[in-house]
Amino acid sequence: GAVVSQHPSWVICKSGTSVKIECRSLDFQATTMFWYRQFPKQSLMLMATSNEGSKATYEQGVEKDKFLINHASLTLSTLTVTSAHPEDSSFYICSERGRETQYFGPGTRLLVL
Amino acid sequence: KQEVTQIPAALSVPEGENLVLNCSFTDSAIYNLQWFRQDPGKGLTSLLLIQSSQREQTSGRLNASLDKSSGRSTLYIAASQPGDSATYLCAVYSGNTPLVFGKGTRLSVIA
User: Mutate which of B3, B44, B97, B106 to test chain A, going by most A C-beta atoms within 10 A?
Assistant: First the structure.
């Protein structure tokens, strides 16, 4: 099956800095990628849908100017958390749409001090 | 809008017991349903995927059933082991929309 990688796997940063998370499709080209966020003991919540060559579609309540998504190619989507604050600390997981399901990256744990 | 509910939210059982996790969804127009496992601080591991035309899928000690018309699925774990301790997530796929997840069941198997 498809393999999705994410980098970094964890990051600690100071409040006010920006953090970029990369999501790569290793097996096949993904025209659509999804970004999820998961707070402790909560389920995965969809943040946005990233489409190659067009602007991302954000879910209600997700600030597009704070969570910048770029789908630079058919194999790379990036999520940048701008001016991160402690409440942005979470587990971020990207996912690539497959034919019958989605394939998930290993996730990135972000801790903002 | 599709909603997925998982019951119970948490479950603790002694080693060796058989157990059932429940998942329900509000819109029966699904393509498939998938069960995932998530260990603390880790990503998702796909366990079983059931197509809408199927009734069940089995993998080792795991058996997942699907009753599409009633909007229900169960994950049966036989002879539970401490290594089965994790959060189990149910998710439904309806085609062009992203997977919709339940909140999960946190399972603890006590040795």
Answer: B44
Which residues of chain B make contact with A44, given a CB cutoff of 8 A?
44, 89, 101
Min Cα separation B40/chain A (Å): 9
Q: For the segment B78-102, what is each residue's pLDDT rounded down to a tens digit? A: 999 999 999 999 999 987 788 999 9
Amino acid B1: pLDDT: 87
Give φ, ψ of A86 to 5 degrees. Answer: -50, -35
Query: Are B98 and A93 in contact (CB < 8 Å)?
Result: no
Decide if A41 and B44 are in contact by the 8 Å CB cutoff.
no
d(CA B7, CA B22): 5
Q: How confident is the model at residue A1 (pLDDT cuts 50, 70, 90)?
A: low
Which tens digit of pLDDT belongs to each residue from A63-81? 999 999 988 788 899 999 9
- Centroid of chain to Cα A100: 21
Asked if residue A105 has pLDDT above 60, the reply is: yes
Distance, in Å, from the CA atom of A77 to the CA atom of A62, rounded to the nearest integer, reads 17
* Dist. CA B104–CA B6, nearest whole Å: 6
DSSP state of A99: S
Length of chain A: 113
